[in-house]
Amino acid sequence: MQGAGPPGGHNPFGGPGANPFNAYQVDTTAQFADEVVPAVPQQPAGPPGGAFAPQGAWGGAGAAGAWGGSPQQPAQGSFGPQHVNLQFTDTTAQQYVSGTMGRGEERQNLVHHGAGSTDPGASSSVPGGMPFPQQQQQPYSAGDGAPSGGMPGAGGERGHREDYTKYPFYNVRRYREYFDVDTTDVLWRVGNSMIGVFRPNFMEVTMKNPDLYGPFWAATTLIFITAVAGNFVSWLAWRKNNSISPPPPPILPSPSPSNLSPSPSPALADSAGSELANVGRLLLSKMAQDQWFTDYTKLATSAAIFYGYIFIVGLIVWGVVKWFRGELKLVNVFCIYGYCLTVYVPVSIACVVPINWLQWLLVMLATALGAGFLFMNFKNTIYSAAPAKAVPVLLAIVLAHIALGLGLKLYFFQY
Amino acid sequence: MWPFRGGNANNGAQAAAPGPELFQDVPQVPGTSQYVPQSPPPTLASSTATAAPPAIPDEYTLDESIWKTIWRDIVTIGRNLRSVLIPVNWKFHGQAQALRNWDLWGPLVFMLVLAIVLSLGEANASAVFAMVFAEVALGAIVLTINVILLGGELVFFQAVCLLGYCLFPLVVAAIICASIANKWIRCLVTLGCLAWASVATIPFIGNAVPRGRKMLAVYPVMLMYVSLAWLAMVKT
């Protein structure tokens, strides 16, 4: 809140008495959630006083409206968790905290924050720019601590789910539906995508709650890892070249990928003498150093290939299934295609080892796993959609994946 | 200056009748470290302050000198930098509190410096510059959207601001690595700066999302920082 001073703290804009929040009449010494408004409305305001008259009802006696009258009706029964629905208003974003907070939990939170815990993240969330992350249990609040039911990778099945369709299409929050997974869900999906040939239940588990988190970050991870690994290998080659290459004339264009662009400097140096040769060697080594970063086209191509494989091939598969009037959501297809790329992450790291047959073995193994994963998971859907054409469609899916694997081996994991 | 400054932009509606808060981010004594930037609203702690605020601030920004304006921005950057990157001494006014007063000047400066340092002396400097700058700028935006999509509630520009300020250790690492040839020192410096950036970022990002998803929110941040640190480390 702009210009408000901490209790007893240092207020740069006025004396100890200059608290524009006086107008709120907030009883900040209260102990429980139904007695205190945990955050004052975040409206940077005009002159304190009359402008805040409506909000003044938030504090004190007017709190009944905000809490649904629960303090007034103790006879209604439960001393258990009361439903608290708070709306934080900030001028930059709307923030909501909706959840069920019991008394004990609330007291813990009070103690936690009041003690000024040393965890910077925990305490930093209090002053009001952020809502309370510990209490914020957004997509599902009731089952947050409870063990999740059902399959481990299913996700989004616990508690109540927020209705994301209340947001307009241009609001990012509308697409939370596709990111409604937990860490355990994502780990399960990644693991299942690697052993999918043997336990083909990925499609069933993720049918209700497909996510786009995995596909996006799997592809992005692959892009970064291929770039960094390629960088690393050419750095090793450069160091080897530098330390091995004998001094003056014989600067042979080495077969390493770091010398893709043989500079004309050796020839020039030979003709012009040793000084020029030194310059040429410097230039060449400089060029070799700089070769680390020259695979930008490679970076762009890898982005195009990984994102494009998920998006375009997924779109085609979805279109084909739809053509046969099958039941399949586009997000499911993206999800499955994205997760089938995760198996390449360890492979792309392992391909740093410069043994060609090992690289081939690893890439082909990963491709076989991925293709099997796709095959087993698409089998039921496609057979039910188009029993007659199922074999060619599945074959096309597998062949496309094998083509991807070959392309990766021949172009990317070559380093 | 709207896209680059957080504090005053919030007051657009009240511009006709400027309250004292309009000038709240004007430090009265610029540059002194005693200055406590923004005080939190009295939320759960007790507050006993009672009096009327001063009616009119003594300082207007309209007719001040340009140097003063720039100095104020520099002070804001320094203050945000300190509160973002040294979160230990800020018990109650933590990162979030300082970030209420977010600005994008600092992230812009650090992104530019990082991209320039990493692209200095390269064969194709412009391509390196473009890639690094695009990575950090798009990365901050994508990471913020990622956190929001995972169910976290963040103020968009605050998070972009924080992620930009957390580039500062990497800028330090890049500059040191560009000037030191010893590879062990480079490794140590890079790892230290990476750890510093992570310590500053991870609580903020991790606490913004629901409990079971911290790893999902933190992992992309680490992906970006590790790749940037890698670029810094292999820089000659």
Automatic annotation (TrEMBL), chain A:
Residues 1-83, 111-162, 248-271 are annotated as: Disordered. Its main location: membrane. It is a multi-pass membrane protein. GO terms for biological process: vesicle-mediated transport. InterPro entries: Yip1_dom, Yip5/YIPF1/YIPF2. Pfam families: Yip1. One of its GO terms (cellular component) is membrane. GO terms for molecular function: small GTPase binding. Keywords: Membrane, Transmembrane, Transmembrane helix. The keyword Transmembrane helix applies. Residues 197-404 form the Yip1 domain. The chain crosses the membrane at residues 216-238, 299-321, 333-355, 361-378, 390-412. The keyword Transmembrane applies. Belongs to the YIP1 family. This is Yip1 domain-containing protein. The lineage of its organism: Eukaryota, Viridiplantae, Chlorophyta, core chlorophytes, Chlorophyceae.
TrEMBL record, chain B:
It comes from the Eukaryota. The lineage of its organism: Eukaryota, Viridiplantae, Chlorophyta, core chlorophytes, Chlorophyceae. GO terms for biological process: endoplasmic reticulum to Golgi vesicle-mediated transport. Residues 99-231 form the Yip1 domain. The chain crosses the membrane at residues 104-121, 128-149, 155-177, 184-205, 217-234. It is found in: Golgi apparatus membrane; Membrane. Its main location: Golgi. Belongs to the YIP1 family. Pfam families: Yip1. It is a multi-pass membrane protein. Keywords: Membrane, Transmembrane, Transmembrane helix. This is Protein YIP. It comes from Chlamydomonas reinhardtii. Residues 1-51 are annotated as: Disordered. One of its GO terms (cellular component) is trans-Golgi network.
